[in-house]
């Protein structure tokens, strides 16, 4: 019966991203297109739970176990793929398979859940025992006891009854599922969780849980015994390395269990007959699990996989899974007969071993054999340790040899390092000058900003002045208006007085007219009477009656008196005694005429009065309206003035802050420059001294090399910190500039609205310059980029000059090529730097090839059969780091300076391409260097602008992909 191999892909955790495994519809998982693949019997996808696995593939095993067969469930896969989660669940106590097995086992043994071992009908006297051990570095530790420091580990014992057992491991009888689960959890927490040089110890340890069930089968009345083994295997990631490589790196013990497991699986898969002979003694784990792997056991293996796995690691895991699926096991019912049979066979085997031992021991019998066996074991362990020691020594020897070789070439190395130091110096000098120029530019910008702000402040002060003048003008207007108001009031009073006078006159006039009419009537009567009297007199004179002459005379006298009296009364009625004596004597006709004239005059006066009244009213309305508008305008002006004042205060404080910031930058830069200069001088002096002492007294090349390396590291650190500081300062300054620009824009808007209002309310007042004149012109904006280019060119020239000066100061003369290079200018800068680093890499590559050749020759001379080792020298690491640092620096400078995504992409690409050579000749894992460079780059981008992140990360992946393709094409190099 073959081992069942099922797969499980765990869900993504902690921003791992989606599952990238190539999974076919037939449950085939491939490590890469055309690479190692395997078709699982069943594949649990990401959404599956422990309960799903349990119900489908583990619960049936509990039934088989209860039926009297040995069963085994093992979890296999790389570290972090979910083996522990599957078996034990997680901290949130989501149940793992072990607690589920225990619960189900006891539930099936005791379906009524009444008391222990009530029988389920098929069994009697059931008894469950539990044993749990951990195997780490070939030591077996009992997880049922608290570990002690003096724990020497348990030994395996081969007995005829039980086969291979852990000698001395505590076997605990468990009566309830909860009790068993608690024991399991306690044991699980006792696993070795130490952090070692090779990662967590638990990654390389195996946990074996053995549940033994004994009972009497009711049907036969015979005792039965079965075992359920649950195994958490060590991480499979080590399987991508050669075993010699693992031995070299981890020592002989750490990864032995998983390597032996894979070895036994391979052996078993190729020898499928029952009479096979398998070497289980490769490790403690395979010895302990020999029944489970190739004997009397029904075994199922769950292969756990991460959703995103390294293709090589996955290929290693799938290869073992494929081999396991071909392994045959031979489970039989462990009834009494089978147990007898097995015991007999084991006993025979043991006897054979003993016989063999006694032959070897010269016929000294059993006690001698056990001694020999113990001795053999001891010698084997000693041998193992000695082998380990000798391998380590050999490795150390090789290291030393390579170091000696390196020392022999130390001069060349030192030269190249000095060259790189020179380059570094150049770059640092260049960066320094760049920073200085940037700082100058910032200073200029700040000055310009200050100047602009000063202008703006002046302008605003002018505006304020104008506004206050206008306010004064409005104040004078208001005064005038107040005067006009007073005049209007006086006029209104006058008008009232005239009106009253007019009314009085009108009344007098009316009375006069009435009196006049009355007098006219009386006059008319008198005239009529006179006419009659005259007629009578005429008649009487005609008649000649003398006595009658007296009466008409009297009558005449009376009339005359009346007429004389009438003008006096009229004068009195006119009141004022104004009438002259001449007027008193006016005849009635004339007075009537005068009355008509008066009427007309009065009419005219009335018309005039109405017109005046109308005009006055209009004027008053107009003045009132004007007053209201002026008041409103004054209010608005006051508010705007206070706004402008506030803006001015803010702008001033901004300018002050910028000045402060600028001063701080200046100081920082000065300090850093000083520090750098003094450090550089000190280093160069030290190197010269060391060189002198070496030339004179035969100094130690290695220590000089270390010294130079540490110096370089020091320089790099100092430079990096300086860059970071300045980048932060520049960032802050840029932010401040942006704020000021925003403020400027806001003031412009305020200015424009003020201007519009002034234009609307007082067209004759100067509203200040239009907004367009205050904005930055297009030329100014374009000249930003051009001046940046110009500035970069200047920076480069200055950096070169500075470097040449430095060289001169240090005793080296700039060669003609250098001078030529100085003259070449900006266009050759990047090309030049690239060439230098490429040369540097090439020379390092040549060095590597030379070293490899040397090693090969050495190993050909050596009788050992071990493979030649491919270990890059420390110097090369340093060289790569220098090249990487240079590439990153240039990329960062380009990105920070131009703040352009294109440039960032270009430099990311350059980082990758310029590191292709180092990537080639570095062992697996080292390409992280390139990743790190790009990653840093991407991080910088993130700092600058968040929404660029995605694009830059895309570019990062793109170029890394390109680098990989390049690498694949070039593997024959
Ligand atoms: N099916 C799952 N559902 C949710 N989380 C899971 C699942 N499988 C594993 N994990 C989580 O993945 C992480 C790694 O799992 P786990 O520790 O079980 O891996 P491992 O293979 O046992 O690793 P190691 O060998 O280092 O112990 C843990 O945080 C675990 O909670």
CATH topology-level fold name of the domain at 4-334: Kinesin
CATH architecture of the domain at 4-334: 3-Layer(aba) Sandwich
Which radius of gyration do the C-alpha atoms yield?
A: 58 Å
- Helices and strands: which structural class? alpha/beta
Helix content: 55-70%
- Give the integer mean of the pLDDT values: 72
Into which percentage range does the β-strand content fall?
A: 5-15%
Please report the number of helical segments. Answer: 25
Instruction: Report the uncertain regions.
Output: 113-119, 359-366, 573-585, 696-701, 778-785, 810-816, 818-827, 862-901, 911-953, 969-973
What's the β-strand tally? Answer: 16
CATH class membership of the domain at 4-334: Alpha Beta
Binding site for ATP: 77-84
Coiled coil: 369-536, 613-675, 782-809
Family: Belongs to the TRAFAC class myosin-kinesin ATPase superfamily. Kinesin family.
Domain Kinesin motor: 2-327
């Amino acid at each position: 019966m073959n081992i069942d191999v099922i797969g499980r892909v765990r869900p993504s955790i902690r921003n791992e991203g989606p599952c990238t495994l190539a999974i076919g519809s037939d449950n085939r998982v491939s490590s890469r297109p055309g690479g190692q693949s395997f078709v699982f019997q069943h594949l649990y996808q990401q959404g599956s739970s422990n309960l799903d696995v349990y119900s489908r593939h583990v619960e049936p095993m509990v039934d088989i176990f209860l039926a009297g067969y040995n069963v085994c469930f093992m979890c296999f896969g790389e570290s972090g793929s979910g083996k522990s989660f599957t078996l034990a669940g997680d901290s949130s106590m989501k149940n793992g398979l072990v607690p589920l097995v225990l619960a189900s086992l006891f539930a099936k043994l005791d379906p009524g859940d009444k008391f222990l071992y009530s029988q389920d009908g098929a069994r009697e006297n059931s008894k469950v025992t539990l044993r749990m051990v951990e195997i780490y570095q070939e030591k077996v530790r009992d997880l049922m006891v608290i570990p002690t420091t003096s724990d020497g580990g348990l030994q395996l014992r081969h007995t005829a009854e039980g086969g291979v057992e852990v000698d001395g491991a505590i076997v605990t009888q468990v009566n309830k599922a909860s009790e068993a689960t608690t024991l399991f959890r306690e044991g699980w927490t006792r696993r070795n969780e130490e952090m070692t040089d090779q990662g967590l110890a638990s990654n390389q340890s195996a946990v074996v849980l053995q549940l033994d069930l004994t009972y009497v089968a009711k049907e036969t009345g015979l005792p039965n015994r079965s075992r359920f083994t649950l195994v958490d295997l060590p991480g499979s990631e080590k399987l991508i390395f050669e075993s010699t490589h693992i031995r070299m790196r981890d020592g002989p013990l750490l990864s032995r269990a998983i390597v032996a497991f894979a070895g036994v699986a391979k052996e078993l898969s190729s020898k499928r007959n029952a009479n096979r002979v398998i070497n289980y003694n490769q490790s403690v784990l395979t010895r302990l699990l020999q029944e489970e792997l190739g004997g009397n056991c029904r075994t199922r293996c769950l292969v756990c996989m991460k959703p995103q796995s390294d293709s090589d690691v996955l290929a290693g895991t799938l290869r073992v899974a494929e081999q396991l699926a071909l392994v045959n096991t031979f489970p039989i019912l462990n009834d009494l007969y089978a147990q007898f049979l097995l015991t007999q066979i084991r006993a025979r085997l043991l006897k054979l071993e003993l016989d063999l031992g006694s032959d070897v021991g010269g016929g000294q019998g059993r006690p001698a054999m056990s001694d020999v066996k113990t001795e053999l074991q001891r010698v084997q362990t000693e041998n193992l340790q000695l082998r380990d020691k000798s391998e380590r020594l050999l490795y150390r020897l090789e290291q030393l040899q390579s170091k000696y070789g390196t020392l022999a070439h130390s001069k060349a190395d030192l030269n190249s390092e000095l060259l790189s130091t020179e380059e570094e110096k150049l770059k640092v000098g260049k960066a320094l000058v760049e920073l200085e120029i940037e700082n100058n530019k910032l200073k200029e910008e700040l000055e310009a900003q200050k100047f602009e702000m000063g202008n703006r402040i002046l302008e605003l002060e002018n505006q304020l002045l104008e506004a206050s003048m206008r306010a004064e003008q409005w104040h004078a207007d208001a005064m005038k208006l107040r005067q006009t108001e007073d005049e209007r009031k006086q006029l209104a009073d006058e008008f009232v007085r005239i009106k009253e006078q007019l009314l009085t006159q009108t009344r007098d006039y009316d009375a006069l007219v009435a009196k006049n009419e009355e007098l006219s009537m009386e006059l008319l009567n008198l005239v009529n009477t006179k006419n009659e009297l005259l007629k009578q007199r005429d008649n009487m004179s005609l008649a000649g009656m003398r006595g009658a002459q007296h009466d008409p005379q009297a009558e005449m006298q009376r009339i005359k008196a009346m007429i004389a009296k009438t003008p006096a009364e009229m004068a009195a009625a006119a009141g004022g005694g104004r009438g002259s004596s001449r007027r008193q004597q006016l005849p009635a006709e004339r007075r009537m005429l005068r009355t008509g004239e008066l009427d007309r005059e009065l009419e005219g006066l009335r018309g005039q009065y109405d017109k005046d009244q109308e005009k006055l009213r209009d004027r008053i309305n107009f003045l009132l309206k004007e007053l209201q508008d002026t008041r409103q305008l004054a209010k608005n002006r006051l508010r705007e003035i206070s706004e402008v004042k506030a803006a001015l205060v803010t702008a001033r404080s901004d300018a002050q802050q910028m000045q402060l910031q600028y001063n701080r930058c200046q100081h920082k830069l000065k300090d850093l420059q000083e520090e750098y200069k003094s450090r550089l001088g000190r280093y160069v002096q030290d190197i010269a001294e060391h060189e002198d002492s070496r030339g004179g007294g035969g100094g130690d090349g290695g220590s000089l090399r270390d010294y130079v390396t540490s110096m370089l590291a020091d320089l790099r650190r100092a430079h990096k910190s300086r860059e970071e500081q300045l980048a932060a300062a520049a960032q802050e300054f840029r932010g401040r500039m942006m704020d000021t620009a925003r403020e400027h824009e806001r003031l412009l808007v305020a200015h424009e609205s003020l201007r519009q209002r002034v234009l609307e309310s007082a067209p004759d007042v100067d509203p200040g310059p239009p907004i367009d004149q205050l904005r930055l012109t297009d030329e100014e904006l374009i000249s930003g980029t051009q001046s940046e280019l110009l500035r970069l060119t200047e920076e480069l020239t200055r950096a070169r000059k500075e470097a040449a000066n430095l060289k001169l100061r240090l005793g080296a003369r700039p060669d003609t090529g250098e001078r030529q290079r100085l003259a070449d200018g900006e266009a050759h800068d990047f090309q030049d730097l690239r060439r230098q680093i490429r040369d540097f890499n090439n020379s390092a590559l040549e060095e590597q090839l030379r070293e490899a050749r040397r090693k090969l020759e050495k190993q050909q001379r050596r009788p050992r059969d071990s493979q030649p080792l491919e270990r890059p020298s420390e110097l090369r690491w340093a060289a790569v780091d220098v090249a990487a640092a240079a590439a990153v620096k240039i990329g960062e400078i380009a990105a920070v300076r131009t703040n352009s995504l294109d440039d960032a992409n270009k430099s990311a690409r350059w980082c990758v391409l310029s590191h292709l050579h180092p990537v080639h000749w570095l062992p697996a894992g080292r390409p992280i260097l390139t990743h790190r460079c790009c990653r840093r780059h991407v991080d910088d981008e993130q700092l600058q602008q968040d929404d660029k992140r995605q694009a830059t990360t895309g570019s990062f992946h793109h170029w890394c992909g390109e680098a990989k393709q390049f690498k694949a094409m070039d593997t024959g190099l």
